[in-house]
Fold this sequence. Notes:
With 93 residues, this protein is an all-beta fold. The chain has strands at 7-20, 25-38, 46-59, 62-72, 81-91. It contains no helices and five strands.
Amino acid sequence: TRATSAVEYYDQSNYSAAYAVNDDLSISYEKEKSEANYTSDATAAVEQTSDAIQLAYTMGGMTLAIAHANHDNNGYVSTAEQDQTVLAITMAF
């Protein structure tokens, strides 16, 4: 017998778009859908979706970046949601 929680395969699709506003500023967007399909017909497939937007500004050797992402059914758990915001400052010497 197979375990009802065993994932047989993942069906995934994603797309992204990026735009360089000028030499210093860029923006990008990403959308991802992934569905966990289980070995047992008794366990329903769960679709996880993610949306993210990123913005980066470069001045010489320093980059300021911010990214925000939203995840629905995170970890393939129905009703699990997560929001993330990351602020990064990087410098090259």
